[in-house]
Amino acid sequence: MSRHRSTASLRRAAREVVMKAVYQMEMGGLTEEEARALVAGECGRLEGIEEFALHLVDETLRNMAAVDRIIERVADNWDLSRMAAVDRNILRVAAVEILLFDDIPEKVSINEAIEIAKKFSTESSGRFVNGLLDRIARMKGELRNNL
Prior knowledge:
Helix 1 packs antiparallel against helix 2 (32-43). By secondary structure, the protein is an all-alpha fold. It is built from eight helices and no strands.
C-alpha cells in the first residue's frame, strides 16, 4: 500500500484485509491470533490505518456468533451456510462496522461492502450484500442490543 493513498482508499484496503483474515479463519487456515497478526502486518505500515483495522478485526472476532445470528435474522430464507463464503465474511465485517462504529456513516459502510463484494465475488453479490446491510442499518437500534 502506498503512502500517497487517501484515507478512504486506505480504509477500504484495511476492510479488505480484515475480510480476508476472517475468511481464512473460517476456512481453517488461521487462528484468531494469526488473523490479527496478518491484519497488523498488512496495515501496520500506514499511520492511522492499523488502529482502525485492528479494532475492526477484534470487534468482528469478538462478536462473530451474535453477528451471524443477526445476518440470518435479516436474510429471509437464507441459511448462513448457503451463502458464498466471501459474501458471508463481507457481511460479518460490514455488520460489525454498522452496529459498532458510530463514527462511520452507515451508507459508507454499506457502499464499501458493496465495492468489496464486486471486487472479490460477483456483481449479484453487491446487490445481495446491499440488501442485507440496508436491513441491518434500518434495524440498528434493535439489533445492537443483540451484541
